[in-house]
Amino acid sequence: MKLLECVPNFSEGREDKVIQAVIRAASEVPGVALLDRESNADHNRSVLSLAGPSEAVAEAAFRATKVAVELIDLNHHKGEHPRMGAMDVVPFVPLGESTMEDAVRAAHEFGNRVWKELKVPVYFYGNAAKTPLRMDLAEVRKGQFEGLREAVASDPTRAPDVGERRLHPTAGAIAVGARPVLIAYNAYLTTPDVAIAKKIARSIRHRDGGLAEVKALGFDIRERGRAQVSMNMTDYRRTPLHRAVELIRAEAARYGAQIEETEIVGLVPEDALLDAAEHYLQLNHFDRLAILERRIPPGAAPHAPPTSSNAASEPPRTWSDRTLREFVAGLSARTPTPGGGSASALSGALGVGLGEMVLRYSRPAGEAPPELLTIISRLSALRERLLSLVDEDSAAYEEVRAARSERKAAQAPGPAPERWIRALERAARVPLETAEASVQASRTLAAERGRVKPALLSDLLSSLALLRAAKEGALANVEANLASMREGGISTADLESAVQRLRAEP
């Protein structure tokens, strides 16, 4: 059985209804596995990874393309990523015993079908290219939808490989190719200056004298408030991931920037990650057969299938488990979580922790009376609860976002759906608990002020200031959610009463 991977890239990363419709179309074909999906709002683009028998994968890609052509209008499409088609790029990748010739054959058959049934012109690229110039996707897509629309009618060198010399009025054109495994790899910089990202991209990409088999562009990721160096690494054996990282790091330093974090979009070969591990761990003579999982006989240690494409052996880290630098970077990014409620809970936890230190130093070591130890124990419990509220606040807001999208999609008249009501109530009660915990801790610490050593008074005042900030920020979040609840006709009397009571606290 000839197996292929197909990685359709389509020009929609914001409208969930459109994205889901394309995914459903691809997923309905028997024998095809949806290995991964990625969507990016700033790029306004989504990428699917499909795998299965050659004919089935081609059918799934065609159904996805048909839906994208029907639902996406490039005349109204804006995004950071270059594009020339509603279904922009469809590459076929050989897997297992399949050859590149198998992938090229599938690409050509697919492209001919797209023109015949959908009337979208097709350009073949990569190993499926009909001319050497079109092996480079960037050359095929030059000018994007708007520029190609003008050039295709007047410039014979821009004529499609299949179809008439005119673009589809809303769906543009499609690039269909065959290629080896590609790693889509992005680096986020510690700056929002996209000019720096573009300079770095120019210095590392192959066509401008940089790294072999690396294509790179610089993007402004407004959602995160960061500039991004986005790469397609077409042969990780010629240029491994760690070499790209180190060159980006060196180039960024020239402009006073650093790499904040990197990401892999879609799937990645295991050996590419092991190459990076060997490099950074300086395993100069490492035998990969020493990896435990590679020594276990097939079938000896079955694993449950992952619940998602991003499933890992360890649960994802919560915000409260991350480093302080990571958390602050998360706050500064243009993302909805973590937000003010999480920051308020963290402020409360910091205030409590500082207060605990003050009380521990207020008596000689080993001489704290039992009542003081009881107070410290109570504060420790409040600190742990506030740290958990950091994560609960982010989760509550994400639940509101999901319920809002569901409600908007339903567009049903009448009373608010139950999920929407529950989400709003939770989003109000979580920061209310943050305020309650902060007030309790503040009250406890203020009562101990007379027994605090003068040298520690500044620390106690800092502790109380952090707790006041936690209370005020949390109550502001409660009131924001109360407004949404009132608009939805949800009773808020008990919550309003609690807010008034906490506001009265010093």
Question: How would you describe what is shown here?
Answer:
This protein has 506 residues and is an alpha+beta fold. The chain has 3 domains: 3-178, Formiminotransferase, N-terminal subdomain (Formiminotransferase-cyclodeaminase, Chain B, domain 1, 2-Layer Sandwich), CATH 3.30.990; 183-273, Formiminotransferase, C-terminal subdomain (Alpha-Beta Plaits, 2-Layer Sandwich); 319-503, Four Helix Bundle (Hemerythrin (Met), subunit A) (Up-down Bundle), CATH 1.20.120.680. 49% of the residues lie in helices and 14% in strands. α11 packs antiparallel against α12 (370-410) and α11 runs parallel beside α13 (418-447). The chain is elongated. It starts with a strand and ends with a helix. Residues 301-315 have low confidence and may be disordered.
